[in-house]
Amino acid sequence: MQYQHLAEVYEKISKTSKRLEKTSLCAALLKSSSDSDLQYIIPLLQGKMFPDWNEAKIGVASKLVIKALSISSGNTANHIESLWKKIGDLGEVAAKVMENKKQSTLVETSLTIKKVFENIVKLSQTDGTGSVDLKMKLIAELLTSASALEAKYITRTVLEDLRVGVGDSSLRDAIAWAYLTQGITYDQEKNDLILPEGREKYNALIETVQHAYDVTNDYAIVAHTALKKGLTGIAHLELTIGNPIKVMLFPKAKDIPDAFSVVGNPAAFEYKYDGFRMQIHKLAEDNIIIFTRRLENVTKQFPEIKERVLQNIDAKNFVLDCEAVGYDPVTKKYLPFQKISQRIRRKYDIEKTAKDFPVELNIFDIIYCDGESLLKTPFKKRRQLLEKITKQKSLSLTLAKQITTTSPNEAKKFYDEALLAGNEGLMAKNLEGIYKPGARVGYGIKIKPIMESLDLVIVGAEWGTGKRAGWLTSFTIACLDEDGMLQDMGKVGTGVKEKEEEGVSFDQLTELLRPLITSELGKEVTVKPEIIIEVHYEEIQKSPTYSSGFALRFPRFIRLREDKSLDEISSLVFIEELYFKQRGR
Question: In whole angstroms, what is the distance from residue 567 CA to residue 438 CA?
């Protein structure tokens, strides 16, 4: 397929705000694609070349793209940078300068999606001496052969800032429409679907596709399987040991009676630890891989966890769901997450850091064991299996502390005990519940004493003035809507410190955000949505100012959430629920 065709589809998708219309355009593209092209089209539609669990990154800065544009168009880098500051979108700048390019190649080359995909992937594989020049040549090669429209989307894709608006839910539904259904029609005038077989059957179909994605974390695999093997094929997709899956997520209960009403009676209650989630895969012998909930491989950062798991879990292969909790090496008291979060990013002095910030591994679920998936096995049986294969040792490796009860009073006593020990609260779990990756369903619920905070992503900021000059301040924060798109809901700066020893500082956040800047207009910058923060607030208010329709009253930065991925930030639906629950609304 020619890349020009994909660029035209991008343009159509970006010009509509209707999710169903976006989905219809994606479905038509998939339906017209050959099997061999799917492996390129799916990642290009998502604007990310690799599955979430793949550690490879494109890693190209705006300055390098400007140089490549200069080579390809004949414009000076200063002129291109000046246009960028004026327009604010380097993709639009690329379209403008390539439309009026002063030099042309001797041989015009028609770009294919394969060529674009392969060149961009090579950017992630280029390292060492001469790598900057080679990366620039790879980008310039594409831009030189590109039309203005193609240049716009090549630039955005290289910068990992596609701005088209194809969320996970749109791509999921598009796969179903393209390969798994017949007779479904999108009514553009009514912006609705015509479903010959009814809504219930359609919802079941979408749920099947969603499950396939949850266990593979790769829409390219799901699409290829749907095309080749249909509904039966994707229904039989299972997790592959070594490739992490999305962890199961839980909503918050109002109190213990509410928890019982959600998960049933009797219920299992477990300590809710203030640590970071670990998904641990044992493939064979001593081959252990440790993933965070963001699907990052952190095996090297936690050598002691690897050894403990090998020594204390009696199974040939498995996938564990755990929480690593930090504790003070002197007092043996649990520490809050922020105290040990630095271990996730640590690349040097790992042994010293492990000694200074030790962790206890608390295992609370198992989803694969000795060649068998346990996703559909009841929770009580999964727990029994853990008890059978685990050798426990306090402050080293242990199972999550648990009771099973029918008594609210007994659960309340256990809850108070958990808080006294320094934990966040309790998890209540349905004894018959299956493991549902990535879903907030009735299989478990959390009970915490504090008002529910929000996990939001930074999408913009302002350069500070006066004593804060040189720092990014006043951070624009966003939530996730039902279509997987980001919607802003205000700014936050309170709670960020001026000195790093007092907490997370403006300087620290600036260093994290500076490489993520995608555009600047005056003091305002936009950034790639990668830095997730926890925010407290006094109240959620309706607001016509922000695209979410809501704003936070007196928002306050609490901590970085390096353990969370973008698709785990607070949803607009959740925020709306909180809005109506507050103050008895």
Answer: 9
Kindly provide the b/e burial profile for residues 419-437, where b requires at least 16 CB atoms within 10 angstroms of the residue's own CB.
eeeebbbbbbbbbebbbbb
Contact 272, 448 (CB under 8 A): yes
Burial of 192 (0-12, 13-18, 19+ CB in 10 A): exposed
- The C-alpha atoms of residue 445 and residue 429 are separated, in whole angstroms, by 7
Amino acid at 278: M
Pair (408, 265) in one structural domain: yes
Better-predicted residue by pLDDT, 563 or 69: 69
Nearest-CA neighbor of 534 among 474, 440, 462, 457? 457
**CB neighbours of 271 closer than 8 A, spacing ≥ 6?**
362, 400, 401, 402, 418, 421, 423, 426, 427
Give CA–CA dist 25/188, Å, rounded: 11
Q: Which residue has the tokens 């539609």?
A: 45
Task: Quote the tokens at residue 278.
Answer: 């670990």
Residues 182-231 pLDDT 10s: 778 888 888 888 888 888 999 999 999 999 998 888 999 999 999 999 99
pLDDT band at 105 (very low <50, low <70, confident <90, very high): very low
Which residue range forms the structural domain that includes residue 285? 256-447
At residue 476, the 3 state secondary structure works out as strand
**N residues, the chain:** 585
Q: Are residues 400 and 510 in the same domain?
A: no
Active-site residue (options: 272, 436, 446, 491): 272
Same domain? 420 vs 510: no
- Tokens for 584? 């008895």
Are residues 269 and 428 in contact, defined by beta-carbon separation less than 8 angstroms? yes
Establish whether 137 is a catalytic residue: no
pLDDT digits (tens, 9 = 90+) for 32-41: 999 899 999 9
Q: Which pair of structure tokens corresponds to residue 336?
A: 């809050």
Helix (DSSP H) and strand (DSSP E) numbers for the chain: 21, 21
Looking at the structure, do residues 414 and 525 belong to the same domain, yes or no?
no
Q: Decide which of 425, 447, 469 is a domain's last residue.
A: 447
157, 47 contact by CB (below 8 A): yes
Q: Are 446 and 429 in contact (CB under 8 A)?
A: no
What is each CA distance from 106 to 103, 147, 312, in whole angstroms?
A: 10, 15, 66
CB of 37 closer than 8 Å to CB of 180: no
CA distance 177 to 341: 42
- Residue 314 maps to a domain: yes
pLDDT-based confidence at 342, cuts 50/70/90?
A: confident
Average pLDDT, the chain: 89
Angle made by CA atoms 516, 298, 497, in degrees to the nearest 5: 50
**Shared-domain flag, residues 432 and 472:** no
User: What's the pLDDT at 106?
Assistant: 43
- How many CB atoms neighbour CB 548 within 10 A? 21
Strands 359-369 and 372-373, bridge-based pairing? antiparallel
Report the domain count for the chain. 2
The token duo for 51 is 């599955």
Q: Strand, helix or coil at 339? A: helix
Helix pair angle (35-46, 168-179), 10° resolution: 160
Cβ atoms 220, 43 nearer than 8 A: yes
